[in-house]
Amino acid sequence: MEEEQVSVVDWKRSGEYEDIVYETAEGMAKITINRPERRNAFRPTTLFELRDAFDRARDDGEVGVIIFTGAGTEAFCSGGDQKIRGDDGYVGPDGIGRLNVLDLQVQIRRLPKPVIAMVAGYAVGGGHVLHVCCDLTIAADNAQFGQTGPKVGSFDGGYGSWLLAETVGLKRAREIWYLCRFYDAQTAYDWGLVNKVVPLERLEEETVQWARELLEKSPLALRMLKGALNAVTDGAAGMQQFAGDATLLYYMSEEAQEGRDAFKEKRKPDFAKFPKRP
Ligand code: S0N
């Protein structure tokens, strides 16, 4: 019989979704891929719904941390659904082939709140890349990590390659991709792929504990740190996001507000009163 994940929070479910579950509680949002019969493989519908859910979590001023997980204990996510893979991507009800997991990877990176991957079972293929894109990963002791691309005829040359290399080093990234082996939770921890390994029955308790600690911290400081840590890898796009965060902070200053107020009051702005800091 499949072991159960133990829930330690009174989650409130909302939204009408087919492939995912969206829940909130105590400043946290929990987003769950709900296709356990396919080891939580994603299809275009899953990714459209995940986009909507991550947007909701981003826009909700009550939410400070997002937990991203998979239903059941067998898998976080097994990547793209190979059974609906056509000749030019994953095919949804509209008959169009898509590779829209890439949009989700970018969305998680750009989201200015910490995203914690809560991994039980397999995080493989495109599912492995998703946990790599998250800010933190808490793993159950039954977790298995790996890439399968060269085995099933796919590869991720974006975040799936170079963010992985940044995380575990180039030699290990090459090993993971070229050999398509799976690695247990302890190895993943030893390689710096995950932040903590706990017994399966403590997975949500531990993840929620990390989320609660994050919620005690300054949201703006966390936002700036996420932007800063991503900016190095994300190049111009990362700097664009970081520059936007700097603009947000500037908007919140009296100095910037003086410019706005002067325009509205049809007067010359008085910037002379603001310090010229060293
Ligand atoms: C996960 C594995 C190891 C689990 O093994 P286990 O526990 O023995 O269970 P199974 O019996 O194998 O599976 C149970 C049922 O679930 C189905 N299933 C499992 N994974 C998938 C899947 N990915 N797609 C469809 N169905 C899946 C099984 O078929 C089984 O159902 P039944 O019995 O009814 O057949 C094991 O299942 C496994 O190895 N799975 C495949 C892992 C894999 O290779 N995933 C695909 C990797 N590639 C990608 O993810 C591509 C990413 C990508 O496409 C991409 C890349 C770059 C840029 C963009 C993209 C993009 O997608 O957009």
From TrEMBL:
Top enzyme class: lyase
Entry's EC annotation: 4.1.3.36
Chemical reaction(s) catalysed: 2-succinylbenzoyl-CoA + H(+) = 1,4-dihydroxy-2-naphthoyl-CoA + H2O
Marked site positions, Important for catalysis: Y90, Y251
Cofactor(s) of this protein: hydrogencarbonate
Residues noted as binding substrate in the record, renumbered to the chain: 39, 78-82, 90, 122-126, 148, 154, 251, 266
Domain of life: Bacteria
Positions of hydrogencarbonate binding: Q147, T148, G149
Gene Ontology molecular function: 1,4-dihydroxy-2-naphthoyl-CoA synthase activity
One Gene Ontology CC term in the entry: cytosol
Coiled coil (residue ranges): none
Pathway: Quinol/quinone metabolism; menaquinone biosynthesis; Quinol/quinone metabolism; 1,4-dihydroxy-2-naphthoate biosynthesis; 1,4-dihydroxy-2-naphthoate from chorismate: step 6/7
Gene3D superfamilies recorded: 2-enoyl-CoA Hydratase, Chain A, domain 1 (3.90.226.10), Lyase 2-enoyl-coa Hydratase, Chain A, domain 2 (1.10.12.10)
Keywords, sorted A to Z: Lyase, Menaquinone biosynthesis
Reported function: Converts o-succinylbenzoyl-CoA (OSB-CoA) to 1,4-dihydroxy-2-naphthoyl-CoA (DHNA-CoA).
Similarity comment: Belongs to the enoyl-CoA hydratase/isomerase family. MenB subfamily.
Protein name according to UniProt: 1,4-dihydroxy-2-naphthoyl-CoA synthase
Taxon lineage: Bacteria, Bacillati, Actinomycetota, Actinomycetes, Streptosporangiales
